[in-house]
Write the structure tokens for this entry.
Amino acid sequence: MSVLDSALPPRIALVGNPNCGKTALFNALTGSRQKVANYPGVTVERKIGHFVSPLGRRVQVIDLPGTYSLRARSPDEEVTRDVVLGRFSHEDSPDLLVCVADATNLRLNLRLVVELKRLGRPIILALNMMDAAEKRGCRIDAAALSAALGVPVVPTVAIRRGGVQPLLEQIDGAMASDAAESPAPCGWSEPSSRDLRAYHQEVEGLLAGCVADAGLPPLATRRVDAVLLHPVFGLAFLFLVLFLMFQAVFAWAEAPMNLIDGAVSGLKDWVAATLPDGALRSLLTDGIIAGVGSVVIFLPQILVLFFFILVLEATGYLARAAFLLDRLMGGVGLHGRAFIPLLSSFACAVPGVMAARTIENRADRLATIMIAPLMTCSARLPVYTLLIAAFVPDRPLLGGLVGLPGLVMFALYAAGILSALAVAFVLKSTVFKGAREPLLMELPAYRLPNPRDIALGLFERAKVFLARAGTTIFALMIVMWFLASFPAAPEGATEPAIQYSIAGMIGHALEPLLAPIGFTWQIAVALVPGIAAREVAVGVLGTIYALSESGDALQSSLAGALAASWSLPTALSLLAWYVFAPQCVATLSVVKRETNGWFWPAVMFAYMITLAYGASFVTYRVASALL
Amino acid sequence: MSGHPTPETGQSPGGRHLGELKKGERARVTGVDERGVVTTLPEGELERRMIEMGLVEGSQVEVLHEAFPGRDPIAIRVNEHTLALRRAEARAVLVAPAA
Ligand SMILES: Nc1nc2c(ncn2[C@@H]2O[C@H](COP(=O)(O)OP(=O)(O)OP(=O)(O)O)[C@@H](O)[C@H]2O)c(=O)[nH]1
Ligand SMILES: [Mg+2]
């Protein structure tokens, strides 16, 4: 029976060293937009896609985490091993392996190919990054390599239109031929150091026969690194980049945020003027527009933050940052590589926790996972920004170079980072005692980010953010509006109606618990739905204050309303709370998944809520005493 | 699971290891011997990793960059690629002056 006749489409898997362009190939083949970036360890899960080959075959492709060997050292490499060896439950091993090798670095990349040949499965070797290889002056005789290896070899350029055409044709060819032959028995076993040396010899032989010139490592990268990896300038530059990033989140986003703010209040006024007074008008203006609008305003900030992260990832600087920080992070027992998951956590702790898969040592990995949520994620930005706008005067510092709000924002980020380091230190010197795993990391050549990729990445983010605002947050806002509007105030009530509503009751019930840290009942109400999505807290405050407004106290903006009704110690206390609070179901559940159980998420929740309450308590008391 | 095959147990002429090279120094790898290097890894693992990352007999290496503080870790060029590692583990790689 040929593969064509079988019900299931043939499956091919992309296997290769980290950062050789597997995901870029996957995207080129399937038209998907999986994350591609210039550092080893981007992909940490298997991703499945489909394409139709030139001959009309429907083919399933599996993108895998990069690995140097099937020996699998870290959880991400285990995924690759299990898929390739067919150890995943209910899954046979793939029908065809497409080994992807970075043509600029064949000596290293071919070792894995030689190892994979032991599997006895059909293989195609894709020599990717041929464009870069040509620039470096590599001269590779693909035909000779194919003859020597006994597998088809195709050059590819994953990032160029049409750059995967030869691979597509070869896949068709392989599908037609290997359907007939049954695969040879698997001859793979875990290689010993002796085997590895033998593979290495084999590769040297292949190179001698097929590669006339291995090419020179790019001089530009070396020159740039002479500055960026300089022991002093390098670190200074890294801190400058981080400072600029947090500062820009505030400074660059201001103008577009004002625009959105204007549009939201315009819409609100229009609806208020058009509809007759009543429950529907209140739901639309106070519930949906005030709630969702107060979250949507933060889109520009999120995009600025992602812009920085995307550029850092695409250039190849992240691996350098890990190198520069290895020693310093070693001071608290963390691995330099932990910087990469921690930086992603500034966007969102969920991918950050997953990226920790590349850290193989369980103790190091758990320590990294446990502190990832202390990095200020983008969902906390709205809360910070709102409170800063309400309570911090916009005063230029250093002759207008930085603003006071930007500086406070930086201080909040710094508070998160420093407390993460402190927690890591405690963890690594108690429960996760032990030496750090070795650092052995390739530093990829620098690449100029492709503006189109960055733009697409930002567009993607904007879509996710707006979709979330339009679904989760939208739904929560409607629920909150109902809770905050019913039951209606009794006859002859003196307080605003919301005081008598369910939300008011919940808030007043929680108030005693939160009064010691200076939280008002409105904050208590906002914290509850904030567990589903941190930024909802801002939306809820928007609704509550919109509903509480009465004639003379009418405030144009939420920030104005807060400034008028909260004391400064309360605001500071809430900021301190948000630095630590574990209010995010998504993070807790990804931690559960990554650690296979409820224990670590429970520990995470407990330690973070304790820190949050403690920090808020101290902040509130100290601020009340001083101010 | 791996014994130590003969080549890497032989001492390199100068008896130097990668961990002691200074910035700018070039050398040739003469062996990999993880004994005497303390790591979290099971026995034989560091050696295999070094080989997988291209640090194997005959490779040309050059120390390109040093981090801070303590000039550690180091970034080295290994034939065509660049690798970051700590000096402590680099001790497992024996080197001789580049030919
Ligand atoms: N010049 C050039 N760059 C490429 C090519 N293919 C991929 N890249 C770049 O190489 C880098 C790594 O690409 P990825 O697709 O993320 O690599 P990967 O193999 O999936 O990496 P891991 O998921 O970490 O294993 C990115 O910066 C890509 O833009 C190519 O053919 N030519
Ligand atoms: Mg990938």
Remarks:
- Confidence is low (pLDDT under 50) at residues 1-5 of chain A.
- Chain A touches chain B through 51 residues (CB under 8 Å).
- Residues 198 and 497 of chain A are 80 Å apart (CA to CA).
- Residues A 22-23, 42-43 surround magnesium ion (ligand 2) (CB under 6 Å).
